[in-house]
Amino acid sequence: MTILPVKPTLVIATLLLMCSAPDFIPAFKDYKVLDWHSTLAVLDFHARQRHEAPLEEEQLRLKPDTEEQRTEAHPLVDASHQLDHFYGALLRTEQHADGAVTQILHYGDSPTTADLITADVRALFQKQFGDAGHGFALIAKPWAWYGHRGIEVRGGGWKMDAANQIELRDGLFGLGGVSFRGGTGSWSRVVVKDDGLEAMEVLYLKQPDGGSFQVFAGDQSLGTIDTRSDEIEPGFAPFQVPQGANHFEIKNVQGPVRMFGMRFGKNTPGVVYNSLGLNGASVTAIGQNMSEAHWAAELRHARPDLVIINYGTNESVYSAYVDSSYEKELRKAIARVKRALPDSSIMIMSPMDRGQRSDSGEIVTVPALHRLVNIQQRVSAETKCAFFNTFQAMGGPGTMGRWYQAEPRLVGADFIHPMPAGARIVGNLLYKSLIKGYNGYKLRHLQQRTAKLEEKK
User: pTM of the full predicted structure?
Assistant: First the structure.
């Protein structure tokens, strides 16, 4: 009998314990990487039968990826036509009016943090209406999985604080909900995979003891920003991008500076879809933790045509909270956005399905999710916001169970975070629903113009 050496044995045992922890320690339930229920299926392997039509066989195997293109758009709930401001901006963009850039801000939790769903919606909008730039990106990675498709971010020397954390309590988190505090030696490098950029902007904080930082495009210095100010307020430093430049740096930091992010754009009609995700966040991040006056100034500067509020996944496992406090927190967040942006469209986007193992081993929807989504839909109607029911659009109860059994899998072993193919399905559903609403808007306005012409005759 062969006995493994002590060190490899300990490594294997430690790995097994780490994989098992989410099944036995509630605090680790969201970090599951291995589903023990399906491990035996690996041993019970059956080779696929060879078909005479291998292309059709492969399409059938990848059905979840191709099915999304044929899925009917789930209608938005927008009885008060709250999205008309957004649709009007989109129409001007489609008509290539001068300076007609449609701005969308999408606030959400961990999938948004990784630019899942949002990247797919961005690509679809920009394909149809024009690409006006990547929009907002953080200057470093607060989480290893932070991402923005088409942008690479690196940084060092920063003290990073997110709005859903409790260490920094002044509420000054910028547009994206993350504050970066640094000093001499702090740096950031951002690579944008796009040679057509024309404008970029650095978002920072003005403060009495503020230091300075220098901005570079490649080897060319774009300028030095002094952040000292008598008042504490948001700062915005716009720059024209040299032709073909796509490597940007913040360095030569002197004294204390506080940064929030960068925005990248083009001087052409199109859509900018800003992905603003906070890992592990709930709606209290924007409704309570962020300073209202500071965040309102950031929102007004961004001038969005549509603000999407997309939380609920992390709240959905706390039944008592959902029943007692969630509605109040959601209303706070909506009221803040309305006060800051009275003319912008607002849409509440429900969370995706969230699954858990039942006592019988079946993957079922967490019980409080139904109630949370119902609260969102009712509050949306009462506050005159649009509502997109992601949960129902993607298939309703038990969807994550079906997605987990699909080939390829559409959701991870935590039954929460979608795989790229699953995120693409949700992105398509959201985009198609918004476009269906947009087409309805154009039809209504055509009918109104026709009626006016008939009246003049």
Answer: 0.85
